[in-house]
Amino acid sequence: MVEYRIDRHSGVATYVQIVQQTKQALRMGLLRPGDRLPTAREVVEATAINPNTVLKAYRELEREGLVEARRGLGTFVRRSLGTAPADSPLRRELQEWADRARAAGLERDDVAALFTAVLDTHFQGDPS
């Protein structure tokens, strides 16, 4: 099950963080079709956010066709995203690269900027 981490200082709306983290879990294969998302109550207890925020995020995911709410049962994953499993060799290589970047003194934002620049170079014109 996914555990949401809310960064109150990021400037990103809380419900958007939930949507993004759910999509990330779907891309990484950590959530699969049929899996149940945490209930709004569980998310509220773990993150101390408003239940309406959780419900807004889940409605957005449902609108995108990624999850479906089943009355009295919860919210379940309908489909996956991407093909980058959590145990991919590429993930291990990226982890090693991130370790080297950190050892070289780069901050998180520096690494993100560098990685985004490389992505932009390799995926120009890619609609995704």
CATH class wording of the largest domain: Mainly Alpha
CATH-defined topology of the largest domain: Arc Repressor Mutant, subunit A
Order of helices and strands: HHHEEHH
**CATH H-level superfamily of the largest domain:** Winged helix-like DNA-binding domain superfamily/Winged helix DNA-binding domain
Radius of gyration: 17 Å
Number of strands: 2
- Count of individual domains: 2
Main sheet properties = 2 strands, antiparallel
Please list the strands of the largest sheet in the order they lie side by side: 1-2
| Unreliable spans | none
Overall SS class: mainly alpha
Distance between the termini: 26 Å
CATH architecture of the largest domain: Orthogonal Bundle
Mean pLDDT: 90
If helices are DSSP runs of H or I spanning 4 or more residues, what is the number of helices? 5
- Shape by Cα distribution: globular
Give the percentage of residues in beta strands.
5-15%
Helix percent band: 40-55%
Organism: Streptomyces bangladeshensis
Keywords: DNA-binding, Transcription, Transcription regulation
Domain HTH gntR-type: 12-80
InterPro entries: Tscrpt_reg_HTH_GntR (IPR000524), WH-like_DNA-bd_sf (IPR036388), WH_DNA-bd_sf (IPR036390)
